[in-house]
């Protein structure tokens, strides 16, 4: 028993397991020829070199369309120039290492960080099977928070702008702005990095081509929002999507949900005195990670690696001993959000209830509401119990 306890808290073993997950998922999908997302990513670079529209359909090369910004062509380039057999595996490893490194920087006790690793391992695997960049988006949000905690504003601003220019999700890192010590330095850093990421692709490609890419990107995202809001797509696993699919009413708009969500998300900022409490700030990190997913109709099953990282952090911040209802909610989230897409969950339930009604989002919605309540009403003292 002691050996097992030591093993699960051995960072070398955890890191080994995570890398093994990345390699196994990559090899399995590559040998099946099931790595469409990677092909989309790879061709962002190839099409940029050829000065093609990055957002058209290219059915002879891959299914679906690209929705990543022009800067992504530079980010994927080191992998795209390699043979797929190597590039796919290295892509998986790179995303996994990035998230592992980001979580390691969290201001949590050693064993709590280890617990976060284990809690999100299965959700990580789900994202790995799809070659998702969302693993890195989760890392960007977490590491942005950690860098702000360490008052490394310049690099935190870099991550926010990187995530924004690649997939827009990174912009949620601005949620931690009120926790920044030197706000004007932070704002200036954001402006500098925004200019860098905007201009850098123009160094490798023509400015006219990149300007056109940004226009095409905006159009593709606008079209994607309309397509996602359907009763049958693999996306829209969100609060709005769940309501639309349960009611069968596709015309239910996003705006009322977003407006209500933003009010709940922003209300705790009024508790200025609570900013000095680490638990309060960590709960805001958890809230941000979940909010970015459950209020996006672009969310699909592998996107939940972002939200579930928030669930794990939320659970680790709770007071010990855990209340029974907290444990029940956490186990409910593990079962319905994390395990439901896998063979660990009954196929009949998954195919007839979980997928058709976007129920994977339900536990994360409930956790987010609990977090919002705690941020608004919980009494936070000056004791940083999680350091």
UniProtKB/TrEMBL annotation:
GO molecular function, one term: hexosyltransferase activity
Subcellular location: Cell membrane
Residues spanning the membrane: 12-31, 71-103, 115-148, 154-179, 186-211, 250-270, 282-299, 324-345, 357-377
Annotated signal sequence range: none
Keyword tags: Cell membrane, Membrane, Transferase, Transmembrane, Transmembrane helix
Membrane topology: Multi-pass membrane protein
Cellular component per GO, a single term: plasma membrane
Record flagged with keyword Cell membrane: yes
Domain of life: Bacteria
Pfam family of the protein (one): GT87
Family of this protein: Belongs to the glycosyltransferase 87 family.
Designated name of the protein: DUF2029 domain-containing protein
Organism field: Pedobacter xixiisoli
Taxonomy of the source species: Bacteria, Pseudomonadati, Bacteroidota, Sphingobacteriia, Sphingobacteriales
